[in-house]
Amino acid sequence: MSLLKNVGTIGGLTAVSRVFGFARDILLARVLGATAMGDAWQLAFMLPNIFRRLFAEGAFASAFVPLFNRRMKEDGDVSEARRFATDVLSVLLPMLIVFGALAMLAMPWVVEYFAPEGLVEDAQSLSIAVFMAQVTFPYLLFMSVATLIAAVLNSLSRFAAAAAAPVILNICLIAALAYGLSLAPGIEAQRQTAQVMAWALSLSGLLQVVWLGAFMRRAGFKLSLVFPRITPGVKELGVLVIPAIFGAGVYQISRFVDLFFLSTLPVGSYTHLSMADRWNQLPLGIIGIALGTAILPALSRHLARAENEDAERLQSNAIELAMLLTVPCAVALFFTGTAFVQVFMTGQAFTQSDASVTGLVVSSLVIGLPAYVLVKVLTPNFFARKDTRTPVVTAAISLVITIGLNMLFVFQLDMGVSGLALAGAIGAWVNITLLGIILARRGFFRLSAYVVGRLLRIALASAIMGAALCALMLQINLWFVGGPLDKILGLCAILGTGAITYGGAAAALGVLDKASVQRLMRRQT
Predict the structure, then answer these.
(1) What is the dihedral of CA 161, 167, 172, 175, to 10 degrees?
(2) Cα(458)–Cα(511) distance, rounded to whole angstroms?
(3) Distance between CA 341 and CA 25 in Å, rounded?
(4) What DSSP element (H or E) covers 392?
(5) What is the pLDDT of residues 427-472, one digit of tens each?
(6) pTM, whole model, 2 decimals?
(7) Helix%, strand%, coil% for the chain, nearest 5
(8) Which residues contact 350 (CB under 8 A, 6 or more apart)?
(9) For residue 16, which of 171, 147, 145 has the smallest C-alpha distance?
(10) Fewest CB atoms within 10 A around its CB: which of 123, 319, 459, 511?
(11) Residues 6+ away with beta carbon under 8 Å from 226
(12) Are 52 and 140 in contact (CB under 8 A)?
């Protein structure tokens, strides 16, 4: 398939989950808002997810799949693969149960350390926050098991069930928020809703295990529990998982760093950052993850065949497509982020003041949006060469710089949560700069003058659009604090102005022409 079609297919599947998540956050903003309970929920949601991304989705999946596939026989015999998966599950479950129990016992100290000062000073809210964090932590156990089952299904070429599973999470949380909407507004309703959401999160993990397990049994594959024992296969998995944990650890350490700095900010900062990141994640998830997933197999094949020119052409096409889609998104959100937050999230518990702060955070975050996407596009060049160390090193360097900028922006310049977002954006640009320099010095990839020229034209077309949107917002800014009709007209004005100016500038500058589209649609072999 062509790069464009690959990105469209993978991005489309990702978009379904993002849309459900977006609907969830719209309801969340209105029900809990940027309150103590809103921050308590965000903290309770983040803690198990940090460990899930560290152990389950990242390290475990990347190590388990190759070992499982190696035990799959060409004649369809899966008995050896089944024994391996059974042995892994039997060791994994006790470890997760022990770790989860210890984490739940330590949760009063963990929550108090990472909670914002305003939440810590409210004894009842702090107690509820601890309870919520304890209730949500079993989600880690369920999702680790779900990841194992999903890996089995993917190895059996059954992809649909695993792709659909994340929707279950959002459906459960949306149902909990719908219950919250039925309650009379007030602090007690927020506390009750937040606790129901905590239960809904863990329930969603269990339902995903049941969902994936049903599809696994339908595929004729069944796992059972045996007495835990360290078999050679389990030991081999452990040897592979440990380095992968360190690789994924840099990103997750950065999440804990964010939690530390958020704990020093006023109540509502967790929520402001989370709501702003939803707008950043829409293009990042759909474009960045799709591109990274799409180019890795083709890039690996080109390098295995020593087709260096084809590999470089593929990498250049991916970068151009990423910037073609991402730069205008970043520029548009920089100038209009507050307007979109006001339209979709303001109401009930989420005030206009919250929208203004969140909009400022959106503008800070999207400064790094092209860099976040480029990281997804350039790292496959290292992975295809079996080099997992270099991206870890560059990420660690950017993390150190980000921490220094956090201390400057948050503590010295008192920029609040927007300073935290801006530091992360600058850190992402440091990371991508280092990756690009290393690729060029090793002779793996270097941007041609032709591609640089096209990227400059994309930037110029986006700048023209940005100037038009900036002028427009000065005229219609008050529409977004008006009635529904004013807001609808304002959105139409933004979308129309953005599409016309970017489309016109892109056509005039030769960014979008028949030859370019044909080149991006060319089949990748």
Answers:
(1) -130
(2) 6
(3) 11
(4) helix 389-406
(5) 999 999 999 999 999 988 888 888 899 999 999 999 999 999 999 9
(6) 0.84
(7) 85, 0, 15
(8) 29, 30, 33, 34
(9) 171
(10) 123
(11) 86, 87, 90
(12) yes
The number of residues in the chain equals 525
Is the Cβ–Cβ distance between 520 and 2 less than 8 Å?
A: yes
Residue 215: what are its φ and ψ, rounded to 5°? -70, -30
Please, are residues 462 and 512 in contact by the beta-carbon 8 Å criterion? no
3-state secondary structure string across 132-199? HHHHHCHHHHHHHHHHHHHHHHHHCCCCHHHHHHHHHHHHHHHHHHHHHHCCCCCHHHHHHHHHHHHH
Q: Give CA–CA dist 276/342, Å, rounded.
A: 12
Cα–Cα distance between 115 and 270 in angstroms, integer? 9
Structure tokens at 331: 């520029």
Whether 142 and 208 have beta carbons less than 8 Å apart is answered as yes
The end-to-end CA distance of the chain, in Å, is 8
Q: What is the pLDDT of residues 68-126, one digit of tens each?
A: 777 876 556 678 888 888 998 999 899 999 999 999 999 999 999 999 878 888 888 89
How many angstroms separate the Cα of 402 from the Cα of each of 242, 301, 406?
25, 35, 6
Question: What residue type is 470 in one-letter code?
Answer: C
* DSSP label of 481: G
CA gap 39, 119 in Å, rounded: 8
Alpha-carbon gap, residue 173 to 193, rounded angstroms: 10
510 CB neighbour count, 10 Å cutoff: 13
Q: Which two tokens stand for residue 325?
A: 């889609």
3-state secondary structure of 210: helix
Q: Is 350 helix (H, G, I), strand (E, B) or coil?
A: strand
Say which residue the tokens 């180019």 belong to: 295
Whole-number Å distance between alpha carbons of 112 and 105: 13
Which of 57-72 are b and which e, b meaning 16 or more Cβ less than 10 Å from the residue's Cβ?
A: bbbbbbbbeebbeebb
* Residue 408 in tokens: 């400057």
Buried b (16+ CB within 10 A) or exposed e, 244-268: bbebbbbebbbeebbbebbbebebb
